[in-house]
Amino acid sequence: MGRLRTFTRRTFIVGSVAVAGGVAFGAYQVLRPAKGPGAPEDGLRLNPWVLIDARGVTVIVPRAEMGQGVQTTLAALVAEEMEMPLGDIRVEHGPPAEVYANMSLLIPRDYDAKRPGAVMETLYQAMPKVLGLQITGGSFSAFDAYEPMRKAGAAAREVLREAGAARLGVGLDQVRAEAGAIVATDGSRIPYADLAEDAAKIEPPKSPRLKDPADWSILGKSQIRLDQPAKATGTATFAIDVRRPDMRFATVRMSPRLGGGMVSFDASVAETMPGVEKVVDLGDGFAVVATNTWLAMQAAEAVTVEWGAAPYPAETDAIFARIEDAFADKPNITARDEGDVEADGSGDLVEAEYRVPYLAHATMEPMNSTALFTGDGLELWSGNQAPIMLQKAAAEAVGLDQDAVTLHTTIMGGGFGRRASIDFGVIAARVAQAMPGTPVQVTWSREEDMRHDHYRPGAIARMAARLDGGKVAMLTGDVACGSVMGSQMSIPMADRTIVEGIGDQPYRIENRRIRGYAADVAVPLGYWRSVGNSQNAFFHESFIDEMAHAAGADPVEFRLGLIRPEHARSAAVVEKVAEMAGWTGKTPEGVGRGVAFTHSFGTPVAEVIEVVDEDGSIRIAKVWIAADMGVILDPGNCEAQLTGGCVFGLTAAVHGKITFADGMVNEGNFTDYELLRMSNVPEFEVALMANADRPGGVGEVGTPPAAPALANAIFDLTGERVRQLPLIDRFDFVG
Amino acid sequence: MAYTLEINGQSHEVDLPGEVPLLWVLRDTLGMTGTKFGCGVAACGACTVHIDGVAVQSCQTTLETVDGPVTTIEGLGTPGAMSAIQRAWVEHDVAQCGYCQSGQIMQAAALLAETPDPTDDEIDAAMWGNLCRCGTYPRIRAAIHTAAKTIQAEG
Ligand code: FES
Ligand code: FES
């Protein structure tokens, strides 16, 4: 296979390997040696995506299912090319392996590539390859898999046709692939599974022909997700549902002053409580192992403990004062510095400061993992978004080689970025180490989960603009917050998440400067659905609205005037959403409407929100969403993700707030971290557009415009400009 | 202490303290994991089951107070033989992460048993206590309406 070395690294070459009783197809990529199942030795990477054996066809989907439908959509890419009914395909997550590492962590934009920040983004794109990350997040799964998964399916199809033709003794032009079988012109059929071993002997075409999207029968159509029957019958196995023979159930308490450690604890009462088998001293916390999770939780309550001091200011106000201090430092990152923003111009100066709080992920399934430590091996069951990192960290925590850790990645009861952190898996490994030979499931209480999150950072933005004759003569924005990437990787770095959603939006403004400041606050931070876009879209799109109002312009027309010269796909979603909503710029008494637009993860999205006054309470009545998906792989799933993402953003805008007292998070459960409900969720209308040659992100892109569109609607309704979230602190909402 | 529970038509003996909530008896002792833990404080509805046909939060129902036959999501139907309401959930492609859906379905089943053709307001009232972090509420509503029609048509 040495000849393959001459191909460039962006080239995929489809290959196959014989496996016991069958054949696996994947795409080779010329890069560097990678360890993984079936990896050839010569420095090529084989991503074994399609496995055909006596059981039928299995697609390895090396991305984790946390509700975004990725396993169905990625399987559909293969099924389409293989001419297989989607329902006949088995889907497996596969083990952690470098061959499944992401191609990219960031979807490139199709505008504005020469901007200064763009160079760094190119480096960021290469990072997963360098670090061997296998992450589900950043909305890039479909973007990443679009070409290689289809090619793997197409190669399998072509090789099966060849094998089928040979078996039937007819020419290749006499056979076609159809519904999971090779069918000859005389009607004889051979199922794929029966051809698997023959297929293993045939070299697949280097660059198999892909179907014309016009001929797609699965892609582009709404599919019932493969996991629906299991999830409707309670038979889907989340990590918390893993059951092993002789398993024990544990719960954990780590310092509520995050990173503050433990001074001492007394478990003498807890140890005598029913069902308790062991109290494990973890040094920075403790775990109670029992015969039942609830008994473990009861005993944990009975432990008296003295926690260390928090490594950050103890109260919310003091934390925000520290964030404010960051503006006095050098910027961590300058996303844009174009034209001259300091020049004395004529016209009106508009200035505003915005603030957003820390937020928890609050996945419906609390953090948990199950582990079995045997002395020379560790088996781990965990719903996680970053298996290679978890495997490494768990191995280190219990003093084993990475190879000695077997990790099973289960489906997740919500991820939203929380499960890209690996703390919960590592803790389970450490608890299991104290119970050699016994599988232990470690489940966090809801309170432990909410008070030990890796939070969306609290943030402050200072915006200024000069409007000259209704035109934007100058715009500046400075954002200060903790660095998510610095917190996740434990090293300070230029962190583009501080400015994403504000420094990269397709508005044409000649004189503009956007800077990010990293606040020195040691509260653990994580990737929260749409990451920096979640707060920066609120800052940017609220301020665009303030500018439109100051200029006396209609908010839709004002945006279009700035977006049209920069990016046609983005302008088109704003036009579309205005048309859907019948936007006139006027609303009757008691009704308010707001608009917002964000380009994130390669997908432009515009939302219009209508609010109504119900006896002094605000009802979020209706949301219109227009989004350009690039290529629509599954319209039903796009609609579900866009609306779900919007509900996530609205929930945060109305209710979301994590606060601190005495170094500890106050909010502990859904009683004080409220979500939108059936009774107050708005009605949705969604339009999908497709004006690119690749799919963009889906899972996160509905979130960023939600908060500013709602705040702008409330301004229209009440005349009060919202510069601080959550809204519930200032307005009443219907319950 | 030993208790006898009737769950999905089968009798089970369990030896646990009487104050253990039914949720944890089901999940950890009997291995019936379809019923989910979400909050433990009656704030999310993920743990909803039926006792004597009435929807209750199993995290708030102690073992010693269970006074009738219990039905869990596993008792409503199986992947090969789903109830009308579960079929409606699949047809509307409701679940995203799916973690809340056992509780949503059990709550909806109790609603439809009492109110065969619920209005949107009746759905809002009945489903108020069932949270969905993924925001699948619009499809849950649609699935309840579909299930109501199917159940009435099938008699
Ligand atoms: S776990 Fe029982 S209501 Fe949330
Ligand atoms: S489907 Fe994820 S919480 Fe409801």
Structure description:
The complex is a heterodimer of chains A (735) and B (155). Chain A has 16 helices and 28 strands. The termini of chain A are far apart. Chain B has six helices and five strands. In chain B, α3 (84-91) packs across α6. Chain B is globular and about 45 Å long. Chain B starts with a strand and ends with a helix. In chain B, 57% of the residues are buried. Bound molecules: FE2/S2 (inorganic) cluster (2 copies). One FE2/S2 (inorganic) cluster (FES) is lined by residues 37-40, 42-47, 57, 59 of chain B. One FE2/S2 (inorganic) cluster is lined by residues 37-40, 42-47, 57, 59 of chain B. Chain B: Keywords: 2Fe-2S, Iron, Iron-sulfur, Metal-binding, Oxidoreductase. Chain B: InterPro entries: 2Fe-2S-bd, 2Fe-2S-bd_dom_sf, 2Fe-2S_ferredoxin-like_sf, 2Fe-2S_ferredoxin-type, 2Fe2S_fd_BS, Beta-grasp_dom_sf, Diverse_Oxidoreductases.
Number of helices of chain B: 6
Sequence stretches where pLDDT stays below 50 over 5 or more residues of chain B = none
Shape of chain A: globular
- Would you tell me the structural class of the helices and strands of chain A? alpha+beta
Shape of chain B: globular
Q: Write down the Rg of chain B.
A: 15 Å
Going by CATH, what is the homologous superfamily of the largest domain in chain A? Aldehyde oxidase/xanthine dehydrogenase, molybdopterin binding domain
Estimate nothing, just give the exact number of structural domains of chain A: 3
Identify the biggest protein-protein contact and residues per side. Answer: A-B, 68 and 63 residues
Strand order within the widest beta sheet of chain B: 4-3-5
Q: Strand count, sense and closure of the main sheet of chain B?
A: 3 strands, antiparallel
Beta percentage of chain B is: 5-15%
The low-pLDDT segments of chain A are: 1-12, 29-46, 116-132
Helix content of chain A: 25-40%
GO molecular function (chain A): oxidoreductase activity
InterPro entries (chain A): Ald_Oxase/Xan_DH_a/b (IPR000674), AldOxase/xan_DH_MoCoBD1 (IPR008274), AldOxase/xan_DH_MoCoBD2 (IPR046867), AldOxase/xan_DH_Mopterin-bd_sf (IPR037165), N-heterocyclic_Hydroxylase (IPR052516), OxRdtase_Mopterin-bd_su_IorB (IPR012368), TAT_signal (IPR006311)
Protein name (chain A): Xanthine dehydrogenase family protein molybdopterin-binding subunit
Transmembrane segments (chain A): 12-31
